[in-house]
Amino acid sequence: MPREATAKDPHPCDLSYGKDGAMASPTEITTTQLARLIGTPLAPVLIDVRIDEDYDADPYLIPGAVRYRFDDMDHCATDLGGLSAVVYCQKGFKISQGAAALLRTRGITAETLEGGHVAWRAAGLPLVNAAKLPKHQATGHTLWVTRHRPKIDRIACPWLIRRFVDPKAQFLFVAPSQVLNVADKFSATPFDVEDVFWSHRGDTCTFDTMISEFGIGNEALDRLATIVRGADTDRHELAPESAGLLAASLGLSRMYRDDLEQMETGFLLYDAFYRWARDATNETHDWPSTGNSA
Hints:
With 294 residues, this protein is α/β, with parallel strands linked by helices. The protein is 41% helix and 11% strand. The chain has a 5-stranded parallel sheet with strand order 1-6-5-2-4. Helix 6 packs parallel to helix 8 and helix 6 (153-164) packs across helix 11 (259-280). The two termini are 29 Å apart.
């Protein structure tokens, strides 16, 4: 019997089977398997090689994907810098398979998505509204700016962007009075400050705004958003985990003088909360062990 990919799999492509029960290509990944990787540090780089006609008809991206021309894989391989990739086109046939094969000739571990973009959409999986993406810098990444000395929302949002929107996104932390000036001079997108698009709305946080606007909500992210909202707005009654997130976030802010170092370390915290929200909310822990806990 074919086994299902689990959260413990370092890479859930071995022994994979297609929808008709036949073993899938050893260089192909299913939508279910890819969905389990997105949002985690193990996620491959996603390369959208749909032709312009197909993209224009459906201008949405699988979370974290970047677009390349299918005949520009030399440039793509250089940008990947040795990272593994999943390439997808409209239906998963000649364009993505040829592009992935070209990447493999450059030493890149590259797979294709079974069924392509069409299969991902048919499965009802999240898609990023490309119209909401900020303009990319000349080097191909988005650039964001916010207030220095981040605590909760200003770590949670970069984590969300890196894991689900733009894996190469860069973040600037500056004095509160200079956020909009820096945004203007450096063509950066301001977030989590007053009177900008990417910020709090009503009683919700910037994290909520990004999930909604990018269209990447799922059960785990929605649960995490409640925790972030409770911690960031001092409403710990929203989720019992909010108090713990606040405590850990304040501790990190005391441990690091450099905001970028704090951010990178804080990503581990959100990785853990996301995996708990996705996979472990029903698990408990007690002592002495009853055999039903961790």
